[in-house]
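Next comes the chain:
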Amino acid sequence: MHEMTKGANVALASLSEDTGSVVVSLGWCSTSGDGDADVSVLLLDENGKVGGEQDFYFYNHPAASDGSVQLLGKTPTGDGSEDRISLDLTAVPERVERVVIAASRYEGARFGDLDDLRLTIADRAGESLLGFSIPDAGVESAFLFGELYRRSGEWKFRAIGQGYETGLGGLATDFGIDIDDSPEGDPEEPEQHSDAPVDVTATQTATAAGSEPGAALLPAPRAEEHAAPATAPPTTPTAPPAKPAVTRRPRTAKRKVTIPETMRKSLAESENWQQSRLFPASSVKSDREREMRATSVLLSVMAQVPEFGRRLTAAFGAPAGRMETFTEATLPHGETPKRPDGVIRVERAGRIWTGLVETKTNGNPLKPEQVQAYADIAARRGYEAVITLSNDVALDGRPLVEVKIDRRRKNKVALWHLSWTEVAHQAQMLIRHEGVVNAAHAWLLQELLHYLRHENSGCHGFQNMGPAWVPVRKGIDDETLVPGDSRAVAVVESWERLIRQICLRLGGELGQRVLPVQRAKRGVDPDSRRAALADDLCDKGRLHAGLRIDGTPGVLAVTADLRTAKLRTSMDLPTDEQGYPLARAKRLVKQLAEAPADLHVETLLDGDSPGPRGTLERLRPEPGDLLPGNGARITGFRLSLLRSMGSGRGSAESGFIRSVDEAVDRFHQHVITHLDLRPTTRRRRTPEGADTGLGPAGQNV
C-alpha cells in the first residue's frame, strides 16, 4: 500500500489497473468510546464550488441518483469501525473537477480529541491502494481528509489533512453551500408536513428575485482564495465567516416514498384470512428450497429496485449501471460443471461486472470447498467477485471462509459476505426512513421484508451461540474454565456477532446509526483483543458490550453475567451543572414517570466512592434519596434494568439470544425514549430542513 504525506498526490492508475470504482474509508478512534464525526462528500466544478444540492452528500443524503457517490455507512473492522464511501469515478459528471472527502464534529468537539485519523482507498476488488494518516489534528471541528481530482483524463488523489475551526459552516461556505445556523423550532422555519420524507441536502439560493438558479447568498471569497490554485488545500480560517443573509426557505426539490409503520385497517372479515403475498413462504419446507427461493426473491428485487441493488453491491466494487440477476446458472468447472445459487451482472460504459452468489439459509454453514470452486471459476472467467450470503454475521468485515486466490492471474477476484440481517436492514432503511423514488419499488421492498421475516424463509439472521456455549457456561458454573480455553474465544466471537446483529436490527427500526463501541486504539490485533476478553470471561464469568445509538446521551451497556444468569442493561447520564442537586434529581425522576418501577437509579459521584441508589418505585415519592449525605459532587446518574438470562444457546423462547434482544428493546423503549434528549440532539439544518449530520456524539469509528 502506498503511504502518503500531507500535500502529496498520486495517480490512481499508477497503483492499480482497475480504479473505475473505489472505496474510500475514513477511520478514527476514541479510547473513551464516545468520539465520532460525520463524513461528507462534495462534488466541485472548475470554480471550486458545488453546482447545487445534488453535489453535497452526507448522512441524510447518502447516495447520488447516478450512482457516482454512495455513503456506505460504518463497517466493522478489527479495532472498531470505519466510514466507507463508494465512488464510481466512471459515473462522476464531466462538469465535476474535484471530489472532496470531509468530516465534521459538533457541540465544540474537535478532531484533536480523536486518535488515529486515517484515510485509505481500495480498488473494486477490496485491495488497499493508498493510506494517509493524520497525526497533527488539533482544534479543527471540520476536516478535509483529501480529494480526488481530474488531470489529463485520469483521476489523481491529493492528501490534504487540513481543517476549519469554524466547523461545517466554514467548510460549507468556502465551497458554495448555504448553511442555516438557526436553531430548530425558530419562527422563520415553519414545519413542513409531508407523507414522505424529503431527499434534500444543501442548496444554493438566489440573491434576489430573478437571479440565476444556483447563485448562493454567500460572502465574497477572500483575496488569498483567488490567488491560490483551484486544487490547493484550504488554510484554516482564523475567524468565522460572515453569516449569510436570511432568505425564505426554498421549496423542496423532490420527494421520496416511504411506507408507514402503521398500516391501514384490514378489510378481512376474520383474522384467519391471510393477506396475499408476492413471495409466499408458508409452503417452503426443505433447506434446498429455502436457499433457491431466498436467492431468487432477493436477486429479483435487487434488479427491479435500483436504489436497493446499488445499496448492496456498491460495497463490493460494482459500478453504477444496468443490473441483471440470474439463478442456477451452470458454469464449466473441470469434469463437473458448477451451479452457483445466483449471478449478478452490472453493465456500464460497455464493461460488465460479474459477481457469483452462494447462499445459505436456516443457519446452515458455508462450505469452504464450494466457495473455493466459485472463486476458481470467477478467476478463470474474468469475474470480479464471489458473494456469500448466510445467517451468520462476519467479524471485522472479513469473509466467513478462507479461499486461495491465484495471484498470478491478472484478474483479481474479491470475496465478500452479506448476512440476511444486513439485507433486511438496508431494505428497512430505504422504505421506512430514506425513501425510494417509486411507490411500486417501496411495495416490492416491503414484500421482501415480509418474506425475510417469515418463520419458513430461514433468513432470520444469527440464531445460535455455537457448540462452545453450553460447555463454557458449565465450566463457569463449576469453576473449571481456565484462561486460554479456546472455547471461551468462540463464545466471545459469537457474542460480538450477536451485538452487531442487534445494532443492525435496532438501527433499521429507528432509522439511526447504532454501532458497537470499542475502546481500543487502531492497530490492535483483533485476535489478541478477543483472547483478552475470553480470559476475562473465564475469570469473571461476564460478557460486556456497549451500543452507541445516535441521539442518545450515553452508551447503552449490556452485561451478561453467566454466574448469576442475569442480564443488565444500563446507561450513564452525565448531569449538567444547572440548578441545585435536588432539582436535578427531581427532574430526572419526573422524566422517568412512565419508566418501569424496577428501574435501578444510582448516583455517580466525583471520584470512586459509591453513591446512593434505589429502584424508581422507591425514589418517585422521595427523589432526595439520590443525594449523597456527605455533599459530594454529583457527576451523573446510572440507569439499569435487570432480567433473567436465557439458558439455551439459540433464539428460542428460552434462549440466550432472544433474552438479550428483549433486554435491549425493553431498555430502549421503556427508558431511553422517556429521557429528555433535546440538549444532545439539536442539529444544524440546511435551508431545506435536512439534517447536516451535526448530531450527537457517536461510537468509535
